[in-house]
Amino acid sequence: MRAACVAAIAALAALSGLGQAWAHTTVEVGPYEIEVGWGTEPPIEGMRNTVVYSITEAAGGEGVRRGVAGSFAGLDATLAFGGVEREAEVLNDARPGHYYTKIIPTRPGSYHVHVSGEISGTAVDEEIRIEDVERTAALDFPPRGASGGDDVAALRAAVSAMQRGMPSGGAPAADPVAYDIAVFGVAFGVAGIALATIALLKRR
């Protein structure tokens, strides 16, 4: 019973964490809501992605909003990581009020987007933190290094099998030349497997 409760709590915590990690950030500026986040989540280092922007305003009914077309005519966006900044090229999405910037995040960690300028006379100056970029381990399958022990075990088994296949030293050789060729062949095979094992271990 206790194990079941712990598992349930862990599952709820995991789901809660996913909800927080994948949410875009929304700020209110006057009558506008500016939402910024990643186009593909979770963002992974070295993988093509986009920073997406959504700018909306009230559209009459309660809770009803519409996209503001042409918002970036008076806005600029700057991408920031640590002390490095770059002006973002903001492109129009097909949907009114939606925009995006192409990017390949090369480092894991925290990224910020600075949106500044004005929308129809309303001043905008917002520093917006978006979801942290993760290492490739977040999507690796199988995990890197997880099969290293299995690979080495398989190589050892192959060496043992080859050694068992070598003719016994006390057995008479019907054809000495064939015997020598067999011994050299097995020896080279064992040497090749040993080199492969060393290379595999160095990669791990």
Write a compact overview of the structure shown.
This protein has helices spanning 2-22, 148-165, 176-203; strands at 25-29, 32-38, 49-58, 65-67, 75-81, 84-87, 91-92, 98-103, 109-119, 122-133. The protein has 204 residues and is an alpha+beta fold. The two termini are 40 Å apart.
Give a structural overview:
The protein is of the alpha+beta class and 204 residues long. It has 2 domains: 22-138, Sandwich (Immunoglobulin-like), CATH 2.60.40; 148-203. The protein is 33% helix and 33% strand. It has 3 helices and 10 strands, in the order αββββββββββαα. The strands form 2 sheets. Strands 1, 2, 3, 4, 7 and 8 form a 6-stranded antiparallel beta sheet that branches. Strand 1 and strand 2 (32-38) form a beta hairpin. The model is unreliable at 1-21 (pLDDT under 50).
Can you lay out the helices and strands and say which pair or pack?
Elements (H helix, E strand, L loop, with lengths): L1 H21 L2 E5 L2 E7 L10 E10 L6 E3 L7 E7 L2 E4 L3 E2 L5 E6 L5 E11 L2 E12 L14 H18 L10 H28 L1
Antiparallel strand pairs: 1-2, 2-3, 3-4, 3-8, 5-6, 5-9, 7-8, 9-10
